[in-house]
Design goal:
Length: about 300
């Protein structure tokens, strides 16, 4: 891309990064006649997020200049992979920190299961913003530390819908539906995630009528909400109702198609096969479901044929 300017090339690198096309991102970077810090940080993020930690380290050390974003990318990468000594070493060498850096590391710790480290860093922060508080609440809630999440939630100076939804999801995941519903009802304004989380929670606990009640009360039904209702019925063996919702869906995604194939195989082999053939697009889940259907029925020749089509 000899004619590409810095802005367009950086946008291309970021786009390739989102789809894990690391080689293509690097080709764009290498072809740039001029590069700046923003471009370098985009390339560094591509290495880190695609899991090429060796490449990220080498690229970082080869950068002519670095800023707080560069350092944050590297320390977050080490934190996510559980390299405690490396993450601390880089963190201690950082020439400056800011609240964005701290938030990134907290989230990296939480995602790698190091909730105690995330909490320690949170309490050591000289200043916090709404992202800091929200990250800590959702991290505690998702890991099942509900009392800790509740304590942090009570101290938050400003709540966001993400914070509320984190509490709802945390209690729902543990099966504490009354607590989840309590936070749902207390929300100043529920969003689509809130409604869908409650419907899914009821479905997971076998309360399909309550799930339907929540679904019917939703101000808006998007494809996730419809898929949630399909799963609620199918998960509880209500295959006819699941099929009815599936047919009524104005738009279907891969998740809803795959759900119907997986659950249809429990009822009718031919119905599952018809659903598969009707799919506008398929992924590995779709193909695996079809393979499993025929394998369970002893159709080994068909299994081989399907495998060859994948």
């Amino acid at each position: 891309m000899p004619a590409a300017n810095v802005v367009s090339a950086t946008a291309m690198i970021t786009a390739y990064n989102q789809y894990a096309y690391l080689r293509e991102a690097r080709e764009i970077f290498d072809a740039m006649p001029t590069k700046n810090l923003v471009t370098g940080n985009a390339m560094l993020a591509a290495y880190a997020q695609c899991g090429d930690h060796k490449g990220a380290r080498e690229f970082f050390h080869g950068m002519p200049i670095r800023d707080v974003i560069s350092w944050t990318s590297l320390v977050a990468m080490y934190a996510e992979e559980g390299s405690e000594e490396e993450s601390k070493h880089v963190f201690d060498r950082m020439p400056q920190w800011n609240v964005v850096t701290m938030n990134a590391i907290i989230q990296a710790y939480a995602e790698s299961g190091r909730i105690a480290d995330a909490g320690k860093l949170f309490h050591e922060m000289p200043e916090r913003n709404v992202v800091s508080w929200t990250a800590m609440v959702t991290s505690y809630a998702q890991d099942g530390y509900l009392e800790d999440a509740k304590a942090i939630f009570a101290k938050i100076p400003q709540w966001s819908s993400i914070t509320w939804n984190g509490m709802i999801a945390g209690y729902a995941h543990k099966g504490y539906l009354q607590n989840a519903k309590g936070y749902f009802d207390e929300m100043p304004e529920q969003d689509q995630v809130s409604w869908t989380t409650m419907a899914a929670a009821y479905g997971d606990c076998g309360l399909v009528n309550s799930a339907k009640s929540v679904f019917d009360s939703m101000p808006l039904h998007n494809v996730v909400a419809w898929s949630t209702m399909v799963e609620a019925y199918a998960h509880n063996g209500c295959l006819d109702q699941a099929g009815s919702v599936f047919v009524r869906m104005p738009k279907r995604n891969l998740v809803s198609w795959n759900l119907m194939i997986v659950y249809a195989q429990k009822k009718h082999l031919e119905e599952a096969k018809s659903l598969f053939e009707a799919m506008p697009q398929r992924n590995v889940v779709s193909w695996t479901a079809l393979l499993d259907i025929h394998a369970q029925n002893g159709h080994l020749v068909l299994v081989k044929e399907i495998f060859d089509r994948m």
